[in-house]
Write a structure and sequence with these properties.
The structure holds 2 protein chains of 2 kinds. Chain A is an all-alpha fold. Chain A has one domain: MetI-like (MetI-like fold, Orthogonal Bundle). Helix content of chain A is 81%, strand content 0%. Chain A contains 14 helices and no strands. The longest helix of chain A has 39 residues. Chain B is of the alpha/beta class. Chain B is built from 7 helices and 10 strands. In chain B, a hairpin with a 2-residue loop joins β4 and β5. Classes of the chains: A mainly alpha, B alpha/beta.
């Protein structure tokens, strides 16, 4: 299962440096300030963008300015959309779909444990998995619109597909990588088979399962926006597509930035939760 | 009670008499009385780990059996629990939770479980470390947790697979003394696998010296030395020389 090894390494790299210590607030602030010079290029680009949108593009053709809304205009639009509740409305619609799809895709966890543990289950399910897994969730959109019609169910189905396989594959890897002596130790201490599964296999695979959930939520979030572009009348994907028809590029960019920001926040939240719940797994990764 | 009987035990990996088959154990027989400490001494590849795995119920013998009080061992369980070289502690569980695991599996009521756990934490000298996690402990301390966890279920037979091999020399000597102290407080029939002659003499009531593959018992030696054992004692050195010669012969014959 070589393709599934990438996520493991990815987490190690992402998590390792920050984990060593938990510095005090003043140390963190100091670090924040000392990293400010790193934002130099970003600030320069924003200023250049502002000038291009307000001075350069209008001087060529006034209509072109619409294609590249200025950062100040975007900020103003964002403030207005937050104040009116419009942004919040679409955001909650998207988050609700993401959450519903996650509830369904959690089935991948018991299935992955069964596949990792029992050879027979793995041999039977693996061919099906290998056929379905390479199909991008977006390729399901036409069929799913016919199945579910436009709306929440269709969106959730697409998101579900995006989440399901990362969680499944990581759960299988997590179960297969469990230290065999831990299983032997549990049996040797008198654990019946179902308790070996629940108390040792599940717990031992948990760090990898959470990695799968992280990746799954990320893929799901991307699939969500695409699903909403074509098959919804609310949500962030709908918002930016709807704004296109009205040539409201400022709304489009606000929507895009919100999508990126929320995706990042979901990822950070999962990492914080796993750090809390599984302090031991970070120690193992060193 | 826990009288250990190994009777006519053989283990062949692969189809027996086929070309690729490996005979790990061949007709191994010996007996260890209740509450005695027995070491299996031999080079790596002499089948001593196979013997241990069969006694733990992890592997099935090709013929013969390992019995405790006349009952053949067929499956793993708390009656014949094992201590591993790599400790095999549950990394997600605290010291106390690791030790309580087997008690939970035995469905011991909570208050009794806490008492028993506390007793064994005290016995192995880990008071104050109850809530630490395995990764926060040194190798020696981890092995103390593993010993407490195995003893807490009150097995009839305690199996140990080179338990101190991963420790440095000083810690190893210290942990050997600790093991004797703990074993004298909580007497058990013990079968320990080792390749260290000193470890075998320091710990054991009896030593089974194994031959090279296929593993057979070359000699079964009773150790009559008084405890604690003095490494400079003439009788100790004599026994050490004897064991070294036995082991050395195996190297030559190879």
């Amino acid at each position: 299962m070589s393709e599934s090894e990438t996520p493991i390494q990815e987490t190690r790299i992402n998590l390792a440096p920050a984990e060593r210590t938990s510095p005090s607030i003043s140390v963190r602030l100091l670090r924040l300030f000392s990293s400010l010079p790193n934002l130099g290029l970003l600030i320069f680009l924003i200023i250049a963008w502002q000038l291009a949108s307000t001075v350069w593009l209008p001087s060529i053709d006034p209509h072109m300015a619409v294609l590249m809304p200025a950062p100040t205009l975007i900020a103003k639009t964002a403030a207005a959309m937050i104040a009116s509740g419009e942004l919040f409305y679409h955001l909650t619609a998207s988050l609700k779909r993401e959450a519903m799809a996650f509830l369904f895709s959690a089935v991948a966890i018991p299935l992955g444990i069964a596949m990792g543990w029992w050879r027979l289950v793995y041999n039977q399910v693996q061919p099906i998995m290998e056929i379905l897994r390479p199909i991008p969730p977006l390729a399901w959109i036409p069929l799913s619109i016919l199945w579910f019609g436009l709306g929440d169910e269709q969106n959730e189905f697409i998101i579900f597909l995006g989440m399901f396989f990362p969680i499944l594959v990581n759960t299988i890897v997590g179960v297969k990588n469990i230290e065999p002596n831990l299983v032997r130790a549990a049996r040797s201490l008198g654990a019946p088979e179902y308790k070996v599964l629940g108390r040792v296999v599940f717990k031992g695979a948990l760090p990898q399962i959470i990695t799968g959930v992280r990746i799954g939520l990320g893929v799901g979030w991307m699939a969500l926006v695409a699903a909403e572009l074509v098959g919804a009348n609310s949500g962030l994907g709908f918002l930016i597509n709807d704004a296109r028809s009205m040539l409201r590029t400022d709304v489009i960019v606000v929507g895009m930035l919100t999508i990126g920001l929320i995706g990042l926040l979901i990822d950070i939240a999962i990492r914080m939760i796993s750090r809390r719940l599984l302090p031991w797994s970070l120690a193992l990764g060193r | 009670m826990g009288r250990l009987t190994v009777k006519g035990l053989s283990k062949v990996y692969g189809e027996s008499s086929a070309a690729g088959s490996v005979t790990a154990l061949q007709n191994v027989s010996f007996e260890v009385p209740d509450n005695q400490f027995c070491s299996i001494l031999g080079h790596s590849g002499c089948g001593k780990t196979t013997l241990l795995n069969i006694a733990a119920g992890f592997e099935k013998p090709t013929s013969g059996s390992v019995m405790v009080d006349g009952e053949p061992i067929r499956t793993p369980g708390w009656q014949n629990t094992m201590i591993f070289q790599d400790y095999a502690l549950f990394p997600w569980a605290s010291v106390a939770d690791n030790i309580a695991f087997g008690l939970e599996m035995k469905n011991m009521p909570r208050h009794k479980r806490l008492d028993t756990t506390q007793y064994f934490i005290g016995l192995v000298g880990l008071k104050g470390f109850e809530n630490k996690y395995p990764h926060q402990l040194s190798g020696g301390m981890r092995q103390r947790v593993a010993i407490a966890r195995a003893l807490a279920v009150r097995p009839q037979l305690l199996l140990m697979d080179e338990p101190f091999a991963a420790l440095d020399a000083q810690n190893r000597a210290f942990m050997q003394d600790e093991l004797v102290r703990i074993w004298q407080r909580e007497p058990k029939t013990v079968m320990l696998v080792t390749h260290s002659i000193d470890e075998a003499i320091k710990l054991s009531d009896c030593i089974a010296v194994m031959t090279r593959r296929p593993g057979r018992v070359k000699e079964f030696i009773q150790v009559e030395l008084p405890r604690p054992r003095d490494e400079d004692d003439a009788a100790y050195l004599k026994l050490k020389r004897k064991l070294r010669d036995l082991i050395h012969d195996e190297m030559e014959e190879q």
